[in-house]
Write a structure and sequence with these properties.
single chain; alpha+beta; five-stranded mixed beta sheet; 13 helices; extended; PD-(D/E)XK nuclease family protein; PDDEXK_4
Length: 436
């Protein structure tokens, strides 16, 4: 498809050439020359000149065979304006039924209107595939909240309604009715707090935004104290905003924050789309969160060998409903893993830990001991293997019986039950783990 007009100034394009001269180490030069199309008005536009396709055959009046410079052919359905994927033109001709082309179609015009069938299998580029930082998400939340003021209702009623829905969810989480919002003053990184939103000069919404990290170093209480010092008269509504998952929310809740999770945000976004919000920033964020949601739920439908970090998190969250434990990422010299750990009365004083496909029995040293010695680990192993044999738990000695503050004294590599298609049999797997 040849473009004949400059996309910057709409002047005609003309043929030209581009040269690149590079000096070699031996004192010679290398010259690269490319044919280009340049703007006649010299606005600065230039692109590589590529020969467009030509029509070389047809099947009736509706189907044309286009030949591209790289010997790739594509079939163009004229009436339906459909362009099929490329393959070598001789392969297409060999299927028969083609006649020599005898028409006078405007190829460029046809291609501009045609629908490329390859697009049906493409995932549309999403802003939040690239804007992955917490600062980018802060910007989205500020942008969304800014639409809740009454005058913006006239500019985009649906988006204003969705913004108000988000604000309502925040107020309701704190047991308060949302007021008529006359003003919202937004400030990012207030005393290191991600977002401070002052509503009607009466309420202070504190949002600490965590994507894939957790709170630390008593930071949440510090933010509340900083806001209180600056705005002692405001009613605080602290929010711990989290689009990824974590094992528990005891720390933010202990600091007086209400957790606003991915599922809660998706409810707001889905209601907005149902109410015909069409803004691409809004819809991109909904698609982004739904992609994470689908990835977490994929442990139910993907073969275990195909599980990624999100799928393991989904499995551990489901397991947590049945077994009182915690989960999270465990870093080590081998690269780390997603783990789930719990204590069982029948296995006291040992700690049970899932290291993805591996079930481990851990022994932790007491404060007096400081570290588990090799004789202590061997003694623990002997007792565990005896218990395993009695109860058919299929535990075995690890490849290496180490020493340290916490050591693995027994393991099992086949605790996961699967169905015939390789997906997890969740009921049998949880039942197996409850035997420990």
């Amino acid at each position: 498809m040849q473009q004949t007009k400059c996309p910057r100034c709409n002047a005609d394009l003309m043929e030209g050439s581009w040269e690149d001269i590079q000096e070699n180490n031996n004192g010679g030069v290398t010259v690269d020359v490319l044919p280009v199309m340049v703007c006649q008005q010299k606005c600065g536009y230039m692109r590589e000149a590529v020969d467009g396709p030509t029509i070389i055959a047809q099947q009736g009046e509706d189907r044309l065979l286009l030949l591209y410079p790289n010997e790739q052919g594509r079939i163009l359905e004229v009436i339906d304006s459909v362009l099929w994927p490329p393959m070598h033109y001789m392969s297409l001709l060999s299927r028969g039924g083609w006649e020599d082309y005898a028409g006078n179609h405007d190829v460029q015009s046809l291609l501009e209107k045609a629908r490329d069938t390859r697009a049906a299998h493409l995932e549309q580029p999403n802003l939040f595939q690239f804007a992955t930082s917490e600062l980018s998400q802060d910007a989205f939340l500020c942008w969304l909240m800014s639409w809740c003021e009454q005058p913006y209702r006239t500019l985009d009623h649906a988006l204003h309604k969705a913004s108000l829905d988000f604000m309502t969810a925040i107020f309701n989480l704190h047991g308060l009715p949302v007021p008529v919002i006359d003003s919202v003053k937004l400030e990012r990184q207030f005393k290191s707090l991600d977002i401070l939103a002052i509503v009607n000069n009466k309420f202070a919404i504190l949002i600490e935004d965590k994507t894939y990290t957790k709170d630390h170093s008593n930071q949440l209480l510090r933010y509340r104290e900083a806001v209180k010092a600056a705005y002692p008269e405001l009613i605080q509504l602290p929010i711990y905003f989290k689009i990824a998952d974590q094992s528990h929310y005891r720390s933010p809740e202990g600091a007086g924050y209400k957790s606003f999770t991915r599922s809660m945000m998706l409810e707001v976004l889905n209601r907005g789309i149902a109410n015909r919000v069409s803004n691409s920033i809004f819809t991109d964020y909904q698609i982004h969160l739904q992609h994470i949601e689908n990835s977490v739920a994929a442990f139910r439908t993907k073969r275990i060998e195909e599980w990624d970090a999100f799928a393991w998190q989904g499995f551990y969250q489901e397991l947590q409903k049945e077994i009182n434990g915690n989960w999270g990422y465990v870093s080590n010299k081998q690269g780390g893993f997603w783990g789930f750990w719990w204590r069982s009365a029948s296995f006291a004083p040992y700690l049970l830990q899932l290291e993805q496909k591996r079930l481990c029995v851990k022994l932790k040293a007491t404060e007096e001991e400081g570290r588990v010695s090799h004789p202590t680990a061997k003694k623990a192993l002997k007792g565990i293997l005896e218990k395993s044999e009695e109860s058919c738990l299929q535990l075995r000695k690890p490849a290496r019986l180490g020493v340290g503050k916490t050591v693995t004294v027994a393991e099992r590599n086949d605790y996961l039950w699967t169905k015939s298609d390789g997906t997890i049999d969740l009921e049998r797997t949880i039942g197996e783990l409850k035997r420990f």
